[in-house]
Amino acid sequence: MTKDIATPIRTQQIMAKYDLKVKKSLGQNFLIDPNILRKIVGQANLTKKSAAIEIGPGIGALTEHLAREAGKVLAFEIDQRLLPVLEDTLSPYDNISIVHADILKTDVQAAIDSELAGYDDIVVVANLPYYVTTPIILKLLLEKLPIRGMVVMLQKEVAERITAKPGTKAYGSLSIAIQYYTQAEMALTVPKSVFLPQPNVDSAVIHMTKREVPEVKVIDEDFFFTVTRGSFVQRRKTILNNLQVAMPLGKEKKELILKALEEAEVDPTRRGETLTIKEFGLLADKLYAYFR
Ligand code: SAM
User: Which domain of life is it from (predicted)?
Assistant: First the structure.
């Protein structure tokens, strides 16, 4: 096995060799602790029959650990400067494809079709750039890619929101959007000392397993998400008050909102943060009948 990229000395050597200054604007915080990498990759349960998709390989710290465990790694990196670096650091591995692309603008399904044909078990594993964690996760879920799940490092505060259960302060429309598609669990909290440079915020790793069918069946997904987002706009207000703002002409049509709440057996004085995803699903379907 080759020497790990993710040690402080090797990372500094690589950066010096290529005169590489990290770009904070691209969320570049490189991992320098092989133990954390082993733990992250362990969460993904990879075998040589699996493929891993990585977003932001950086200088290859996580990529090489994935290449050791998976049959194939497909990695998307936005920063062109890192391509020659990756070619060098990952040269011992023949099962990695690096694509120079902004993950938010690229056709991931097309890349899967061309690079990962024959792999039925595909997992996203990434130390995400923190300035775009939520858009990346939502894009990968909304595009309904053929993936088993995702293991990602992100800001601890966002990890708490994504994995939050009803009745907690962190629970909100982001928890619902992601838990609608996945079972999301906190896997590890990670100290700042494992990064170079160290980020300003605490980090965590979460594990999201895609559900075979969404957590609740709804008539219209977009409408369901409109209802959930609208129910948290003013967290301290009741669901009735929030829906009066969120639904078209909601103030004039208060009676219809009350009727839908009654049909869904949701007390109008409750706050959005107390409703489960199933309750939101039923409520959205009842509201849909009056406000679609
Ligand atoms: N995987 C490496 C590691 O763990 O050491 C680097 C992780 S670093 C937190 C995030 C990486 O994502 C950087 O390499 C950065 O250039 C890349 N990146 C930032 N925005 C991106 C985007 N929109 N699409 C693809 N890669 C991106």
Answer: Bacteria
CB-CB contact of 259 with 243 (8 Å): no
80 vs 73: CA distance, rounded Å: 19
Q: Would you say the pTM of this structure is higher than 0.80?
A: yes
Q: Domain ends where: 183, 210, 237?
A: 210
Q: What does the DSSP 8-state code read for residue 199?
A: P
Which pLDDT value is given to residue 1? 65
Q: What is the CA radius of gyration of the chain?
A: 21
Structure confidence by residue, pLDDT tens digits, 86-104: 999 999 999 999 999 999 9
Residue located nearest, by CA, to atom 8 of ligand 1: 28
Domain-embedded: residue 216? no
- To test the ligand 1 pocket, which listed residue (10, 12, 21, 28) has its Cβ within 8 A of the most ligand atoms? 28
Residue whose CA lies nearest to ligand 1 atom number 5: 30
C-alpha 169, offset from chain centre: 20
pLDDT band at 2; cut points 50, 70, 90:
confident
Residues touching ligand 1 (Cβ under 6 Å) are 26-31, 55-58, 61-62, 76-79, 102-104, 127, 129, 132
Asked whether residue 25 is domain-assigned, the answer is yes
User: Does 206 share its domain with 255?
Assistant: no
When divided into structural domains, the chain yields a total of: 2
Residue nearest atom 23 of ligand 1, based on CA coordinates: 102
Per DSSP bridges, beta strands 149-155 and 203-210 are: antiparallel
Specify whether 46 is located in the same domain as 177. yes
Give the DSSP H/E element, type plus range, for residue 194: none
